[in-house]
Design a protein that fits this description.
The complex is a heterodimer of chains A (554) and B (108). Chain A is α+β, with helices and mostly antiparallel strands. Chain A is built from 18 helices and 21 strands. Classes of the chains: A alpha+beta (554), B alpha+beta (108). Chains A and B meet through helix 14 of A and helix 2 of B. Chain A: It holds the Pfam family NIR_SIR_ferr.
Amino acid sequence: MFDARPQHNDQHREYLRHRTQQFRRQVERRLDGSLTEEEFRPLRLKNGVYLQLHSYMYRVAIPYGALTPDQMRMLGHVAERWDRGYGHFTTRTNIQFHWHKLVDIPDSMEALNSVGIHSIQTSGNTIRNVNADAFAGAAADELEDPRPWAELIRIWSTDHAEFQFLPRKFKISVSAGKQDRSAVSAYDIGLRIVEKDGQRGFQVWVGGGLGRTPYLGQVIREFLPQADLLPYLEAILSVYNLTGRRDNKWKARIKITVNERGLDVFRADVEEEFKHRRQQFSGLDQEILNDLRAQFAPPEFLDAPVEGYEAARAANGAFRSWTDTNLHPHRIPGYASVIVTLKAPGATPGDMSAEQMRLVADLAERLAHGDIRVNHDQNLVLPHVRKADLPEIYEALRAVGLATANFGKITDIISCPGMDYCTLATARSIPIAQDIAAHFRARGLEDEIGEMKIRISGCINACGHHHLGHIGILGLDRAGVENYQITLGGDGYETPTLGQRAGAGFPADEVVPAIDRLVDAYLELRESPEERFIDAYRRLGVAPFKAALYPADA
Amino acid sequence: MSKGFTPSPATPGVITANDLRMGHCVWMRDGKWTADPREAELFEDEAIAELALLDATSQAHLVVGPYLIEAKRGADGRPEPAHFREAFRRSGPTHRHFKQAEFEASNV
């Protein structure tokens, strides 16, 4: 259990109590007219409160995606008490409640604080919620658990006085597996734990980001000794803080700073700054890290026979299919990590009802060492599950619509809220995701197609990471009509690649037929069922897929 | 004029905003706010609309972010949205999920 996490200590609770009291007074002052909207807006944003199309949206941070059962139950309580009975998990492993009332938010905030979670720095030009591999502490290919590092970054970056008014928002991700599962190349700073000459360190990426000017990050340091992490992060942030553009919001992210100045110039400034920063770190950070490592100690894994699991697989085809698709290898024999996809047919990607939250909390407490993760695919992970318990978990999930066997498949679509909720959106994305999922579910092609990552954004800000989709879809407003551009060949993981725009956009009702033609072309062109869509695209190039998308031009 | 839109008899407009306390969409009629978009006042005169928008902006204790947006006059004379964004603001999310139907039924 992780109740001893720093998020739960007395000092942290007192800090949260103070912040929530402060926000409560700010709301009161806005309502009595003491604060104008212009004065209040940055204050509410600092606390994750947005005003969206139909309502206030309250964004709550889930650091490195980790939740205890009590925290998950509290999210369910908040969803029912102050929202509309559900929440929306995002690609940044936050949860967004889309129907809060301003007058209720201080109470909702206080309830969340009671289990150690909050919304501080979930908006604004600060260091945002830190991400890490959702299989942290469990993955078979992991060098070490990245969560102590992610928590150290969270502690360091929360209310860091120097970095409260950066040129623009700033996102950090930590990955520790031999395979990157945290899309480090798409972050302002991406950290990969690596080994060199028997020593652990970080490969440091900088300047990644999507949005209207997408860039993949570049490696600024091949190997950074672990003890140098925080001073090096401070050096990067400090150089960015001083040299990042503040004259144009659209050119203010570090990706622009790095690419306009050039990586070598930026790196030289960082290394110079690092010399000074390093001297300011006396070792306290490493003492804290050692405490954190103890607090993130692995659970007491149990020996358990797997015969029952194998028998259940043999007897139940649906269970077998689910275990074939929704399990990830665990480092302990007899264990697996379970992916609970929030992508049931007809569901809104990433949405979860309060009832489902409670069920998952109970399951995690009883059968999964009390550990729940949110991953950036808008799914959940139970990282530590005995295979012997999988049949029971599967049946319990199935009863609440959470046992869809589609992890990594064409129906496991990332989608931002789009114009169904978001004021920035230029088109809807959720109905497009639902239509695609329903279509391919009806065709029964999910397993035949294999791994396929479809990502949908409802505007150029790219919250749905469409640039990183094998097939990316971007919703735009073309002369008052929703129109969808398709990008091909994106990948956020083993071979970071930005997808390329295929051609002219499609009206909403032509998106599914267009994807259908793409998929049929892939099935026709692939060399074997093992060749994934992205592999076939890399082998053949864009031409045959473009021909499928635009048959009239072929 | 908000968002570069100038109302005229051919392209009338409505003033809309979000309720400060609750966040829901509201529309202006006779200097007051209604949650029913069909009750919104249609402005066909630029000068009158400008005055109304000034009035709306002065009601910052009630609403957030008032703006004037193009609308159409429906067959019954009531306003209808001219752009799909405003149609979604009227209708709410266009997909169904969990308890949405209950909330719509209770008109929350």
